[in-house]
Amino acid sequence: MPKVYYKDPAGCQLLSYDYNGFLVPSFPNVQENLDKLPDMPVRDDDVFLLGYFKAGCHWMWEIAGMLVNGSAEYNPEHKSVAMMELMDQDQLDQLPSPRVLNSHLFLHHLPKEIFTKKPKMILMTRNPRDVTVSAYHHTFQLKLLYQYDGDWNGFFELFFDGKLNYGSWFEYMLQWEKDINDHPELPILIVKYEDLKKDLVGNVAKVAEFLGLPKNDQLFKDIADKCTFDKMKAAKPPHTESFRTPGESFFRNGVVGDWKNWFTVSQYERFQVECDKFDKQSTLFSTKY
User: Fold this and answer.
1) How far apart are CA 84 and CA 119, in angstroms?
2) What sequence ranges are listed for the domain Sulfotransferase (predicted)?
């Protein structure tokens, strides 16, 4: 799989791999994993968690895992153990049921059996401005994976041009909209990050109903309590071996609207032009928050 190094205006490069025109992280064996993924067996109780990176998938992985296991207990593992583009098929096969498999891939990359077994799928969405900021910190911190030493201004240009892992946010979401419209038979629940922040208990109950789980108000409250951002960050150990800054983790600050502390006026105006174009094309998603 060819390596792709895109450079920001300051000359700082960001590493991706090109998988048939789709940019993916430089995970070990990522091509082999992606090549084998369409033939991976799907279990009847599998749940698929999907979405652009930094859309809240770590958060929902904990919530969904607690729901399917019927217990408000944190998973001692990290969601990477069930990430389909990262782990090989033998490792995924060894995961106990029910599995909450996760990925930032498109529908056509996923196991073909999803079209016959129709497992429940959750698609996370988030304000793309906050996604951009979160993606910058994620990319900068994971130096060994992305090899990026640039600053916010440089990363903004790469994100704006879609020259990073999983490509343009705008194109990514429009592709998912097409996939959803083309396959109305597939059970896909769209969950907004911002809705989780507004009403965590209510949205935990909504996800449980979608998954066909029995109503259990006390469990939903307990899960919501355990899955507040601060408690999750404290409970999940930092990945000191992976991050540039000791003590950092995949849970940074979880604030809605943090983009206002990062975007310049010019960046906001340029980004808004793309948001306006997107909102004219999309009926499922919106950049208006």
Assistant:
1) 15
2) 44-276
Contact between residue 13 and residue 3 where contact means Cβ atoms under 8 Å apart: no
How long is the chain?
289
CB–CB of 105/33 below 8 Å?
Answer: no
Mean pLDDT of 262-276: 98
CB atoms within 10 A of CB 253: 11
Amino acid identity of residue 127, one-letter, is N
CA angle, 132 then 192 then 98, to 5°: 110
> Could you report how far apart the first and last alpha carbons of the chain are, in Å?
38
CB 147 within 8 A of CB 14: yes
Distance of CA 48 to CAs 80, 97, 190, 267, Å? 13, 13, 12, 34
3-281 belongs to which homologous superfamily? P-loop containing nucleotide triphosphate hydrolases (3.40.50.300)
CB contact at 8 A, 15 and 5: yes
Whole-number pLDDT of residue 251: 60
Judge if pTM exceeds 0.90. Answer: yes
Q: Which of 104, 108, 137, 183 is catalytic?
A: 104
Closest listed residue to residue 208, CA positions, set 66, 42, 57? 66
In the residue annotation, 78 being an active-site residue is answered as no
Distance CA 148, CA 6 (A): 10
For 270, phi then psi, to 5°, come to: -65, -45
Domain boundaries, the chain: 3-281
Phi-psi label, residue 269: left if phi above 0, alpha if psi -120 to 50, beta otherwise: alpha
- Cα 213 to chain centroid, rounded: 23
